[in-house]
Design goal:
By secondary structure, the chain is α/β, with parallel strands linked by helices. It has helices spanning about 1-10, 15-20, 35-45, 55-65, 75-90, 105, 110-125, 145-155, 170-185, 200-210, 225-230, 240-245, 255-260, 275, 280-290, 295-310, and strands spanning about 25-30, 95-100, 130, 135-140, 160, 185-190, 210-215, 235-240, 265-270. The protein has one domain (about 1-310): TIM Barrel. Strands 1, 2, 3, 4, 5, 6, 7, 8 and 9 form a 9-stranded parallel beta sheet that branches. Helix 1 (about 1-10) crosses helix 16 (about 295-310) and helix 10 (about 200-210) packs parallel to helix 11 (about 225-230). The two termini are about 25 Å apart. The model has no long low-confidence stretch (mean pLDDT about 95). It binds zinc ion (ZN). Zinc ion (ZN) binds near residues 27, 29, 191 and 214.
Length: about 325
């Protein structure tokens, strides 16, 4: 039933109809996952979304500080941004939501138990119908390698998401962390192939035994790598607007997801940093459809891949 409604919603170019259809968001950085409007209303301010693509991640982070974080400072502001991410999942009918949290976010809550309690309460209050798959974001803090055992032992996180690897970890350290995560039955994801090369995508996926890759769009430059990803059923959690806004793709009309999908790689469509890029998951689907990149039926296949990926997680 959802399939026909989803296809009709795309053809009607209706964001309201799109919001009624169950979808997944498997690549969202928790404190950036809410909508601009939610923060505007809470802080009683006007936030103008970025109009032009950013020149670098540094530019993007600066925009975030100057336009969002200044209106929701400190710990209370952080909690409001997390609340916004759950509220967004509820509004956009995100049935399966992965949010990634750094260890800094955990310790800002005092203890791991406090952090877990706070996040569980926010989910219960603001996204009660959403299946929640929290990821531990790694690569932000030099100390985090010493904290991983304690965090994994709490059995709360469902996956890890290696975000910044080059500054903090050697390849052998990364491998050790990923092995530990696999032993703890966590889904292992990493940000690879957003900026790098197709070879990077395959190398990291192979060495770290990645289950999923955040972005991975650089794989498009190598038929061999695309075939390898398809053969190994490695899912790419793609974020089209993020790619446009960080100049990793020219536009929606030529986005790499078309070719990745054609090579049989499981792909999903996600928001990345909604509070910056200002495109909900519903809007992401509409953007690709309206650009003529993919048919409504193909986009529905992608929607179903996202919803079914819950089956990869141990119960
Ligand atoms: Zn990301």
């Amino acid at each position: 039933m959802s399939e026909a409604k989803f296809i009709q919603a795309l053809k009607n170019n209706s964001i309201v109809e799109m919001q009624c259809i169950p979808k997944s968001d498997l690549h969202s950085h928790s404190g950036r996952g809410g909508s601009i409007v939610y923060i505007e209303q809470w802080a009683n301010v006007k936030i103008t979304p970025p109009i032009e693509p950013f020149n670098s991640l540094m530019d993007m982070n600066q925009w975030m500080y100057d336009n969002v974080r200044c209106h929701c400072p400190g710990f209370m502001g952080y909690l409001k941004r997390i609340e916004a991410a759950f509220a967004q999942a509820n509004t956009d009918n995100i049935a399966v939501l992965a949010l990634s949290y750094s260890t800094d976010e955990i310790w800002a809550c005092g203890t791991l138990d406090n952090f877990i309690q706070i996040m569980n309460d926010l989910r219960k209050n603001f996204a009660p119908n959403t299946t929640f798959l929290p990821d531990l974001a790694l690569g932000y803090n030099l100390n985090e390698q010493n904290e991983i055992d304690e965090i994994f032992n709490a059995n709360w996180f469902k996956g890890i998401d290696i975000c910044n690897y080059s500054n903090i970890y050697s390849m052998s350290e990364l491998k050790k962390v990923c092995q530990k995560a696999h032993e703890s039955k966590l889904i292992v994801k990493a940000h690879i192939g957003e900026f790098g090369s197709a070879d990077d995508v395959m190398r990291y996926a192979e060495v770290l035994e990645l289950d999923q890759i955040q972005h991975g769009i650089a794989a498009v430059d190598s038929i061999q790598v695309m075939k390898w990803l398809a053969d190994h059923k490695i899912q790419l959690n793609v974020c089209p607007t993020s790619n446009v806004m960080l100049r990793n793709t020219k536009n929606y009309q030529s986005h790499q997801i078309r070719k990745l999908f054609d090579y049989g790689i499981p792909v999903t469509i996600n928001s990345d940093d909604l509070i910056i890029f200002n495109a909900s998951v519903s809007q992401e689907y509409l953007n690709l459809y309206n650009a003529g990149l993919m048919t409504a039926e193909e986009l529905n296949v992608i929607r179903e891949i996202g919803l079914e990926s819950i089956g990869c997680y141990p119960v």
